[in-house]
Design brief:
4-stranded antiparallel beta sheet, 5-stranded antiparallel beta sheet, 0% helix, mainly beta
Amino acid sequence: DNFTVEGWFYTNTLPSTDNQTIFHSGTDISEGFGLYIRAADNRLFVQGDLGATFTTEATIVPNRWYHFALVKNATATGNWQFYLNGRQTITGSITNAVGSIGGRTRLGNID
């Protein structure tokens, strides 16, 4: 399956201990895929189940809008591409068939 998840996010505070969720699709944090701000260094990362993680070089700063697009192309070699503010920053592969993952899509916190 091919698809794109696209949106805008704004944060007025950065995570200090736990990663901050931008969006997540799946049954829980260990199954599915999502976009997060990593607490350790305030970088964006894409994580899929089975531990596949791709981290951007972009450091997120508070009080600024960001545009993102996460593209899955089933026919491409690096079948995931991530764009931040129109610039491709990540290419990688997540092996699980994302179309078969159940659950729901969440925006923001997933407590």
